Amino acid sequence: IGALSDQTLQNEQGVNLLLTGAYSVLDGIRNNQPGADWTVSGDNWWFDVLTDDAHKGSTDGDQADLYLLEIYDWTSGNPYLAVWDGRFAGVNRSNAVISLINKIPEGDFTAQLAEARFLRAHFNFELQKMFGNVPFISVENYDATEFNQPNSGPIWDQIEADFQFAIDNLPTSQADVGRPTSWAAKAYLGKAHMFQSEYAAAAALFTDVINNGPYSLLPEFVDNFRLAGDNSSESIFAIQFTTDGGQSLNGNRGGTLNFPNPGPFGSCCGFYQPTIDLSNAFKTDGTGLPLLDTFNDSDIANDYGVESADPFVPEAGPLDPRIDYTVGRRGIDYNGYGTHIGKDWIRASFADISGPYLPKKNVYYAGEGANIGTGGWGQQHSGINYHIIRYADVLLMAAEAAVETNDLATALGYVNQVRNRAKNSSYVQNESGTGDAANYQIEPYASFPDQDFARKAVRFERRLELAMEGHRFFDLTRWGVAESVLNEYTQNEARAIPNFGTKVGTFMSNMNILPIPINAIDLSGGVLTQNPGY
Amino acid sequence: VQQTITGTVTDDLGAPLPGANVLVKGTTNGTQTDFDGNYTITADANAVLVFSYIGFARQEVPVNGRSRIDVQMAEDASQLSEVVVTGYAAQTRGDITGSVASVDIAEATKVPLVNAAEALEGRVTGVTVTNAGTPGASPKIVIRGFGTSNNTNPLYIIDGVQTDNPNILNSINPGDIEQMNVLKDGAAAIYGARASNGVVIITTKSGKYNQAEPTVTFNAYTGVSRATNLPDLLNVQQHGEMIFQSLSNDGAPVTHPQYGSGASPVVPSTVQGYTRVDSYDPITRAPRTATVNQPNGTDWFNEITQNAPTQNFDLSISNGNETGRYFLSANYLNREGILNDTGFKQGITRLNSEFKIGERITIGEHLNASFSRQQEGTLEAINMAYRFTPLVPVFDDEGDFAGSGGPGLSNTRNPVALLSRGSDNYNKIFRVFGDIYLQAELYEGLSFKTTLSGNIENFAQRRFQALDPEFIEPLSTNTLFEQDINNYSWTWNNIVSYNGVFGDHSINALAGVEAVEENSKGKGLSRNGYLFETPDFYLLSNGSGTPNVDFAFDGGNTLFSIFGTANYSFKGKYFATVTLRNDKSSRFLGDNQSQTFPSFSAGWLVSDEDFFPQDGFINRLRVKASYGELGNQTLPASNPTINISNLNETLANYSFDGSSISTGAILSQVGNPNLRWETSVTTNFGVEMVMWDNALTFSFEVFDIDTQDLITRDFSLISTTAIDATAPLVNLGDIQNTGFDLSIGYNHETDYGLNYAINANISHYKNEVKNLISDFQVGRTDLRGGAVTRTEVGRAISEYYGRRVTGFDSNGRFTYEDVNGDGTINDEDRTYIGSPHPDFTYGVNLSMGYKGFDMSAFFSGSKGNDAYNYQKIFTDFPTFFDGNRSTRVLDSWTPSNTNATLPALSQTIQNAETQPNSYFVEDASFLRLKNLQVGYTFDENIAGTLGLDMLRLYVQGTNLFTITDYEGLNPEVISTDNLSLGVDGPNPVFPLAQILTIGINTKF
Q: How many independent structural domains does chain A possess?
């Protein structure tokens, strides 16, 4: 009683119900979930912890499995690999919709089919970029209950086919703003090409999106992470989070750990702390440009090791203003909750590896009640949408594609669009409201002298613009620089946080893709094979 | 000279005995007594009449020319003549050809029981009973190995009520039980589709017809239980040293927010930096002082356990006249738990009555009503007691609960606070079950019985999650959870039976039809935001948050059956039984819906043969054999054959515009339209011997149980790359259990009046997977590091699988066996590292009596089984670095202690040392003194002066000691999933309770 049989679902209502169910797993939260909500989170927050952007946060012993990931001790039994299961739930909930549509003889379900295939492409894209060698579960496999398929290699072709179908069949705009449009599919297909270094194909798609699509940068950088940014002109495809009162089942349950503890509003659990390395990246030179090669020669003034009761003077040197919308620093306003008081808002002790900073982009602003959800143990179910792709990301990918196709002028234009928006945004103000909270200096590039410089500048800009948004690990791996960048980062970070240096291991070349979870291999009856080096 | 003889046959109390057999010896000429015990028979004047009736000693009476012969039968005290209820009928023990074990219920109920099924523990060969430990929780019962992978609960027949819910046995007063019999082989086939896990038949007491006066009994005991075998954890100084050593080993700065940064840790006098929430919305914390207990810190296990009183009162009255009889009882049990704020209270009343209406009709009923209230506590408290640092005291200096609200204290909840705040939570069960029956004598030996039975239960749960201001990750709101579940089931059966004796041939047959329906409906609601945290405020209407429906369900299943059985014996020496049952279950589809389950058995009383020496040391020798096919249709799903999708607020809804919510659905269960019955084919061969002037009894049975098409969820089919639905139930493969049950008893009475008895039983099974639909199946995968058990053809179900630890390397890390010899250690080097299956299990019962004194002792044990001590992931490794550890870490590897138990201390789990490996596999063999009782029965004269017919006092101890090498709380590890046997985790077990009681038995 109360259950829906396969027959009951074979109509438009049924298709829409299952399709909604497929969207619902965008946040990673699935039925029979093997890991905790934060391990499968749709916003990929903990992938930043694998990089130079973030420390796990809290004390080292809290979520020891994430600690092991951060110190590069990766094993196939790590419960954070449950992200595999979360994404496959998405693949197959999409398959369920496709399968159902195939079984209904009458009616036009092209729109729903296109959405389902877009979603399947998204979930497969996630798996592909995380695990490298993943099985493709087709709708035929779904219908035959044959889910144990070999993971013999990349599944880019299938991902592209789904996105192409979405491009061909989705409308250019949607009444429900959370549904993808053909423009979103074009942007995403372009991103898929970027991951395969197919720059010309990517550039063509991005150019179309930029020139003909409905998107534009928001005037205010920070609005991307506030109420105003939800489904704005900059949002291309986002996980829709909302805080419908009560327990907020539709809030960002996967990001629930990533709020200050202790902190200004009694939240939990002090995870997801930006690194010193990231804050160093926001230093600018006298002309408002980033220190592409030297940003890590010395550390920004930071309060690591300084108690809140002891005096501290924040960095006086020139900084990109985006730092204070990205990194929660002592002495600077914290998302409207008052001035960050340093150590007393940080859960990590000085014996831990996580440093002195708080995350900002994922933390709702004071007073934005519609983003503040009441979860089971704290107000941590944020209603801030997570941007899977936002327009600045497209501009920077377009710039990158242009650089790789040696169209430096185009690249320069796109990068400067992003920088100018940052420049022209409001800056964080000091406590008395009389001026900027720090010495902000940012200017567009005058020119890109050569391809190497342009490449460096574009990649650097991606980090500055998109830091703490779950993209960094996948950028580093697709550029093939993860090993060199991350091992250099661990040395630099140890300068400020000696404990980190003692504890962190070495990022090995096989770690560009995660190990296949041991449970996945065991439950497949050995059909799945482990990635090399694990 | 032929003459007509008439007479009346009465029982030992003088009541007429209808249906007694009267036979002219050496002929086929026989008859049966009528409703008033009268008979008429024609026989030669010199003939001998043989009178027999089930449960009474056979009598041979020479006619000697008389025309009237009245006979008073005497109850046969010998065990062989005991009437054993074997389902829809009863047989005398000596005639049974199947494997039917009986519990010595008088002996078994000497132990203070909560659940009547505990009476089976160690007392019936081949039956293992594992207790969950929580007062009021149901034990797990396994009969003859693991044939099925889902539900191993046997079918319980309680008078006319049928159930496989062991919880119902909580609702029976053990003192009401007359008989408890276990059908272990093909004998169970009369219950066809539900019999493959065995059948436990419980009959309750009744009054007797024509009693001279009512019999009143009153029994009571009171006592105390306490936790035993608690783990040894570090004291606060050792904890500090463990932390410092770990940091030092890692080359990290040796500093800790609580223990300082000197050369050695300094235990602070107060918890450093301790804060507590002082206001909500927003949450702000304020400093508090909390004084560290000196010198050892807090012993959390000591703090969460208590010496718990227990009481039981039990009153019964029974009586009967010519046309009616009754048994009425009332029972009150109060068992406080050994964890603070836990316990179980229950009141039960029972009325059994039977009336004769007219000459041929008997109507009767059994009615059992119970009400229980359980405070189950929370397993989280035990987890937290393992983990919580000894630095933190139970209370801060202002008398509030202290907690982890400070640096270096991990994120552990105060377990005393957890239990205390749960003290107003309850699980209440109101349950009424029973049956009403009508029996009619249709013709000589032919009778009809119709029985309608029912079970109605209401489960109500209230759980309040209070605020926890001392916790480092405090709740922002409190929440009330309420659950109501209503179950009802009914069974109606109609049976025709026939009893006849024709000369040397005796036939006893029945045929019947039966319908069963079970239904369950329930819901769970929750709401947060309660202004007051007092129980009188705990109503859903008093919350301020949005109410949530956490779950709701409504479903049922039916079974329709036709069955028949015939018992035949020839000359009392040769026995045969044939049983057939056809079941039709609503859980399956099409041709798979119904199946017929046959069984055959035969016995031969060798010692009655002429060639058998009558004066040898063997008094009785019987061999028996049986074959039967049994089913299992008990599944954790009502409609396992179809795909089921659900609307799901938690998992399927989505907001398409970032504010309003759209309803979605997900596939929640994958169906399997081809699902078939699970069938167990059992063969049993047995020998029974009585020797040495009936002093020594010996019984030996060999069995072979082939479970075919065993039903389980196929997590390999719905694997990690599949839809996130519950995996379908499939017919996974075939499993064979072979083994033996042996029991030996000796009793003797000395010349000077000392009588004593020793009864020992030993059981062995070998489990082998014969066939699987996949190469292998893994056990539960929700464990850290993945599954620890694997099931593969050619091995036993659920053996442990992981890396084998071979020693330590030069850095003090575990070294592992390179199983595939490729020079690197990875997941390919996992292998089989142990088995949860014992070589044998055993029980020994000693009893002694001398004059008024009696003594009994009962030992139970298991040999050769391993358990996976999963708790060691937390107690022996830095899974929660600032948390506490077992004292085993004192024997960690150092350069000067290379022959260590554990690897070198570290802040982090290194070298995958907590992933499945042989360190966690331990020998879980044990020997336990389950019960020791000494009693004294007062002389009748003394009792008489108090107005009593009988007065006995006793002292009793339960679980007095356990000998085991197992390092967890209890070597008897309960497993809910048969593909993951003997895994002591991830939930911790309750500590074993030791119970000391004094009691009184009276009769007047």
A: 1
Q: What CATH number is attached to the domain comprising A356?
A: 1.25.40.390
Q: Where are the beta strands (DSSP E) in A391-431?
A: none
CB neighbour class for B521 (10 Å; exposed up to 12, middle 13-18, buried from 19): middle
pLDDT in tens, B458-479: 999 999 999 999 998 888 889 9
**Spatial distance between the Cα atoms of B219 and B238, rounded to a whole number of angstroms:** 50
Cβ neighbours, 10 Å, residue B639: 18
Determine the straight-line distance between the first and last CA of chain B, rounded to whole angstroms.
53
Compute the average pLDDT of residues B492-512: 89
Let me know: does A85 contact A40? Beta carbons within 8 Å. yes
Which residues in chain A touch residue B915, judged by CB atoms under 8 angstroms apart? 75, 77, 518
Distance from C-alpha of B443 to C-alpha of B360, rounded to nearest angstrom:
9
Q: Select from A244, A296, A246 the least CA-distant residue to A275.
A: A296
Q: Cα separation of A360 and A226, whole Å?
A: 10
Average pLDDT on A290-307 reads: 94
Amino acid in the structure at residue B651: L
- Per-residue pLDDT of A465-506, as tens digits, reads 999 999 999 999 999 999 999 999 999 999 999 889 888 999
- Cβ neighbors of A396 (< 8 A, separation 6 or more) are A414, A415, A418, A458, A461, A462, A465, A466
- What's the ipTM? 0.93
pLDDT at B76: 66
Is the residue at B724 inside a domain? no
For A450, the 3-state DSSP assignment is: coil
Q: How far is CA B147 from CA B130, B152, B901, B925, in A?
A: 17, 8, 37, 22
B820 is a domain residue = no
Confirm whether A462 is domain-assigned. yes
pLDDT at A378: 60
Residue A28's φ and ψ, nearest 5 degrees, are 90, -15
Domain span at residue A35? 12-523
Domain membership of residue B32 as a residue range: 2-76
Of A126, A128, A121, whose CA–CA distance to A98 is shortest? A121
Of B41, B76, B111, which residue sits at a domain end?
B76
Tens digits of residue pLDDT in B397-428? 999 999 999 889 988 999 999 999 999 999 99
Question: Cα separation of A27 and B660, whole Å?
Answer: 17
Q: Per the domain annotation, does A3 fall within a domain?
A: no
- Count of structural domains, chain B: 2
Q: Evaluate whether residue B497 is within a structural domain.
A: yes
- On the question of a cis peptide bond just before residue A171, with omega within 30 degrees of 0, the verdict is no
Residue A532 lies in a domain: no
- Cβ proximity of B143 and B197 under 8 Å: yes
Q: Do B252 and A67 touch (CB under 8 A)?
A: no
Q: Strand B199-204 and strand B155-158: pairing?
A: parallel
Angle at A400 between CA A397 and CA A404, to 5 degrees: 140
Tokens 């080359």 belong to residue: B251
Residue A313 located in a structural domain? yes
Which residue in B652, B720, B912 is closest to A85 by CB distance?
B720
Is B955 within the bounds of a domain?
Answer: no
In this complex, the residue of A92, A379, A526 whose CB is nearest that of residue B476 is A379
Q: Which residue of B has its CA nearest to A349?
A: B407
Angle formed by the axes of helices A408-424 and A391-404, nearest 10°: 150
Nearest to B661 among A231, A244, A247 (CB): A244
Residues of chain A found within 8 Å of residue B723, distances taken between Cβ atoms:
89, 92-93, 95-96, 142, 147
Interface probe with A: pick from B647, B655, B775, most Cβ of A within 10 Å = B655
Pairing of strands B308-320, B324-336: antiparallel
C-beta neighbour count of B532 within 10 angstroms: 10
- CATH number at B70 reads 2.60.40.1120
Q: Decide which of B570, B590, B621 is a domain's last residue.
A: B570
